[in-house]
Amino acid sequence: MNQAEFNALCVAPSCTLRDALLRLEATARGFLMVLSEAGQLVRTLTDGDLRRARLSGLDDATLVCELPAQLPLVVHEDATASAVLESMDRHQIDHIPVLDAQGHPVDVVFRRELSQRIWLSSPHLGEEETAFVEEAFRTNWIAPLGPHVDAFEREIAAHVDVGHAAALSSGTAAIHLGLLLLGVQPGDTVFCSSLTFVGSCNPILYCNARPVFIDSEPCTWNMSPQALERAFESARQENRMPRCVVVVNLYGQSADMDALLPICERYGVSVLEDAAESLGARYKGRASGSFGHLAVYSFNGNKIITTSGGGMLVSNDAALMARARKLSTQAREGARHYEHVEMGFNYRMSNVLAGIGRGQLRVLDERVRQRRRVFERYQQALSDITDIRWMPEPEGYLTTRWLTCFTLAGEDATARCDALMRSMERHSIEVRPVWKPMHLQPLFQNAPYFPHANGFDVSRQLFETGVCLPSGSNLSEDQQDRVIAHLRRVLSQPEARRALV
Q1: Which of 58, 95, 258, 380 has the smallest set of CB atoms within 10 Å of its CB?
Q2: What would the pLDDT profile of 379-428 be if each residue is shown by its tens digit?
Q3: In what order do the strands lie in the sheet with 75-76?
């Protein structure tokens, strides 16, 4: 519902019953909101109220204010979708006004919206997966390992033009193994992007190592070369060089590898590329995930392709990948019996899930095109809202737009983002803030952090003013229109802005 449609539901107490009936028929929403001169909600008015007024002998010229007083059923701005639905069920109604702290109506929620939730990034399965899964069942290859695992590894490696791949139980498991393969030991230091999901850096703690967080830079939202340079210089002065650098490719876009890799090479430190969110993205003609000594992809349920849960470790180093496979299968030695001389992990992907992944991989390029079309439609529909700043895509980059993200400009941006997200949640539309940076997380409160520049904490600013929109490749145009309508109403209308801030 846009602002004009919302305004059409509002009438004054001096409105006649005839005019109210005409307005009900014109709006076709089943109710009106009666507002005082100060804009506060006095009551709601339904076609049932008008019928009862007629039956009691009131004529068309009767004013709405002459009707018997009736307290409106309402919710307030902090109400969640579940709370709104509970109120509707309790009072057996299908619509409910939302009031601000001063009693002004700022929104209306309808029951049908709550039954049609729009997800941020839901799994999108096709027709190919079924055949591979059926083959796994038919041949009884259900347990970890099997022909689909081998084939999925080969196909991923070929798709991203990397020599070797190991299919694992999750992207986090892949990062953990990657750190171990690069020699991370207890007490070591690991540099890591701060603006990321905690799965990028929890494995540093698994290794009993020490994370040092690196800020983002504005033009890609990924690791800042300036901050990385200062972190290395500080480490050199302390004689505590990192064992490796975890560079995260955020929201489906590669980091600026031409700027970051030479810094790491100059100090002789390996790069673990966290491409969990960016399978299908490219940087200057090369696949995201093909730059680090090791790289990681995720196939979690919300990723651009999914195996429901799973990950992949890739590298051009054959010896490292052979060791990855050993460690991921409990580090079993090559004996007839179960022989173990070192600690291993149960990190391998099952043959069934690998079959799903093989089917998903066949539509990866189309999924990228679909998500980019979702972004382009948002961008075009909201182009007149001048304080939206979309996540940049520099020249030479091809981002998958795994999630469509933007920030808001202006001094009140944080409050407006919060109000926007609460409004979308009331209407059963899943949106999220940009990742809360790791250096702001209580878990890592004592970890060192290097901002992009003195006094310029880019990742904090992105978190405080950023929003991620529904972006799935299976998002219909009708669903996207619903998201756009809510965004426009909240962000573009002066009345809505006043109420939100």
Answers
A1: 380
A2: 999 999 999 999 999 999 999 999 999 999 998 999 999 999 999 999 99
A3: 75-76, 95-99, 105-110
